[in-house]
Amino acid sequence: MDSGDLKIEWARQYMPVLGTIADRFRKDKPFEGMTIGMALHVEAKTANLVKTLAAGGAQVFITGCNPLSTQDDVAQALDRVDGVTCYAKRGCSVDEYYSAMDAVLDAKPDITIDDGMDLIHRMHTSRRDVLTKIIGGCEETTTGIHRLRAMAEEGKLEFPVIAVNDTPMKRFFDNVHGTGESALTAIMATTNNLIAGKWLVVAGFGYCGRGIARKASGLGAKVIVTEVDPRRALEAYMEGYHVMPMNKAAEIGDIFITTTGNKDIINEQHFKLLKDGAILSNAGHFNVEIDGAWLNKNAEQIIERDGIQSYLINGRTIHLLAEGRLVNLAVPKGMGHPIEVMDLSFALQALGTRFIAEHHTELKPGVHAVPDSIDREVASIKLASLGLGIDTLSADQEHYMCSWDVGT
User: Fold this and answer.
1) pLDDT, tens digit, 9 for 90 and up, residues 27-70
2) Does the annotation place 206 within a ligand binding site?
3) Which CATH number among 3.30.70.890, 3.40.50.1480, 3.30.160.20, 2.40.50.690 corresponds to the domain 3-170+337-385?
4) Which residues make up the binding site for NAD(+) (predicted)?
């Protein structure tokens, strides 16, 4: 076994939920005769999802969804799996990135699985030739769902897509614990900086921001939250975090992590306020939250080391991690979310894909929720793998909870 195979096997040991589903798929072959096109972060955990779909009878074509998140040895190992073709490459140019997407679409997929919606976007713009065969898709992340809902509201989304990101099993575990741990781990591994005692600024208090704030606080950081939603800002305040606008936080923060999914969260006005040695990173999907283009054009880049670009502004040095791309995957030592977390998320992807295969004729074009039964199924398989049991409601309790005419 080479390094890619060893990584995939290591991850497999800690993915019991996906393993249970793979066993079912080998028996039932829900994707027999189907082609699945994927654009995801190509690393060991993703490889186990791909192998699960191939075990279910699918021909799988996959590329990366971020130019810096592919692990080349894993991509090469995947390409050797029967029924799988992998086009992903780390450090690809923009042209290479979209050429690889086109190669996936050349396979004329029946179902797509996206992380960020780039594949679906391309299908609806420059590759409309593939829309006649497609029956549906799944989307993994918050940013992709935002884009899909905007398409659907304008009547531009031409097939059903399952919003895997929006289900409780994804938000509570992947977004909170996965992003929280992996973003901080990547920052610490890349910079060798201490978190304890630092002013750590989290931009956005959604599920990802909550997770980062909670984990950073546990490591001893003094956490500042910036927000545009007054309710989330108040929630952050009630949980004990400092709340202020970014132009104030910029003067205080030692480490910054953006999680909003929006653009220009840290920009020119903030760069000029930052302390000497400030570290900037992004845990949102695309590299638009920190205005790296302004830095490259207007600031003096004084040194570049693995995963860090350093700039001189007004006599102060600031450090940008991973070109402002997804820090937990794009830095050289980034491993992405913990294996056990992605076991749950990829189980949702696998079962969501099966749901599309079996029920696509019942679904109209647009964004659809993961059926609650699938969400609960994933939780139940995980509990069983941990040897944990839970209570069940009696018939009388169920009647009580569903009735309106039973008083106190």
Assistant:
1) 999 999 999 999 999 999 999 999 999 999 999 999 999 888 89
2) yes
3) 3.40.50.1480
4) 141-143, 206-211, 227, 283-285, 328, 337
